[in-house]
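Researcher: Can you fold this with protoporphyrin IX containing FE in place?
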Amino acid sequence: MDEFAIARALHVIAVVMWIGSVSFTTFIVLPVLLRGTVTGESTDTFEQIEARVAQQAKYSTQITGLTGLYMLYVLDGWERLLDPAQWWLHAMIFIYLVFTVVIFVLEPLVLHKWFEEQASTNPQRVLGLVFKAHIVLITLSFLTIAAAVIGVHG
Ligand code: HEM
């Protein structure tokens, strides 16, 4: 096994950890909390789960980015970034940047405070909005994973 194969395996494991936890939140946690009346207790539970998800995503996003950059370096694939046919590479980098900005900048500076304010006045509405945002993010993530696998092997 060479270093490239190890980097690729780490890349995929980190993607599974990260996108898997987003998928779990989207398709399991939020639908359970949104069933029936949403209370302050529901939003507290969500915050605790999301804090754990964000904590591990701090590592898994950066392992994904570093192993991805390492693979590009080994492949000497920088020119591929100029080729529109390799758009799936751009899609991966885009998803990485979106989550990195959300986790490291928006969540601590803006989203956390906004969620707490909204949760105290209208927990039902805020959890519904969070669910919609998760649907958008997970759809983009799944499309990116499909495009990457087809781009590499297809
Ligand atoms: C800075 C961010 C990223 C960079 C630079 C990057 C780069 C790469 C590179 C160079 C490859 C191998 C391409 C090849 O063998 O020709 C790859 C594979 C892959 N990447 Fe990324 N990636 C990044 C983020 C992501 C993200 C966010 C996802 C998922 C949402 C993702 C999912 C995948 C998948 C599924 C493969 C295919 C693995 C396989 O089937 O062999 N990557 N990536």
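Model: Folded with protoporphyrin IX containing FE in place. Residues 8, 11-12, 15, 19, 64-65, 68-69, 71-72, 77, 92-93, 95-96, 141, 144-145, 148-149, 152-153 surround protoporphyrin IX containing FE (CB under 6 Å).
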